[in-house]
Write a structure and sequence with these properties.
Chain lengths: 113, 112
């Protein structure tokens, strides 16, 4: 069964550094998403991406964040100048269409020290 | 702004009995609802969905009920099995948007 994959599974970085989280969505899906879950809190939407551009983003997704689909399979989240409060699980998801069921990857646990 | 709420952080049920997980929402524009199951250190796994044109959707042991007037949905698992022990999230979306709004989750423990 096709699934969303994410790398790395864990990432530890120093405050102020840049990180890139990678995702491979399900191959026939057209919409891609990033969510995050800070420990003990709810899953929060960050951004959705369609047709090589951002289609929706939350207040969390400020200039510190960017997304890219550098090739036909990868979908990346870049976090510039990481802060302690960026420590969270980051989940990538994909769907066939807007409003359809989103299928999640296993997540990347980011720890900013 | 908590648009989707799961007021019970945890629930314990005996194996074989029914588990009922509840979810309330505030945004009347939501028209598509899902339940996800999550094990520790894994991503949310899609379980079952319901659109606002229905009030019930069933898939094996899992049934989701939607009460639009009360802005309430529930997930019934019957019979509950120890492997059902996980955190369950409800999520909702509007057809004009892409994002799903998640509740805070209910941790279900099924006792053998």
């Amino acid at each position: 069964e096709p699934e969303v994959t994410q790398t790395p599974s864990h990432q530890v970085t120093q405050m102020g550094q840049e990180v890139i989280l990678r995702c491979v969505p399900i191959s026939n899906h057209l919409y891609f998403y990033w969510y995050r879950q800070i420990l003990g809190q709810k899953v929060e939407f960050l951004v959705s991406f369609y047709n090589n551009e951002i289609s929706e983003k939350s207040e969390i997704f400020d200039d510190q964040f960017s997304v890219e689909r550098p090739d036909g399979s990868n979908f990346t989240l870049k976090i510039r100048s990481t802060k302690l409060e960026d420590s969270a699980m980051y989940f990538c998801a994909s769907s066939t269409d807007r409003g359809e069921t989103q299928y999640f990857g296993p997540g990347t646990r980011l720890l900013v020290l | 702004d908590q648009q989707v709420k799961q007021n019970s952080p945890s629930l314990s049920v005996q194996e074989g009995r029914i588990s009922i997980l509840n979810c309330d929402y505030t945004n009347s524009m939501f028209d598509y609802f899902l339940w996800y199951k999550k094990y520790p250190a894994e991503g949310p796994t899609f379980l079952i969905s319901i659109s606002s044109i229905k009030d019930k959707n069933e898939d094996g042991r899992f049934t989701v009920f939607l009460n639009k007037s009360a802005k309430h949905l529930s997930l019934h698992i019957v019979p509950s099995q120890p492997g059902d022990s996980a955190v369950y999230f409800c999520a909702a979306s509007r057809n004009t948007g892409n994002q799903f709004y998640f509740g805070t989750g209910t941790s279900l423990t099924v006792i053998p």
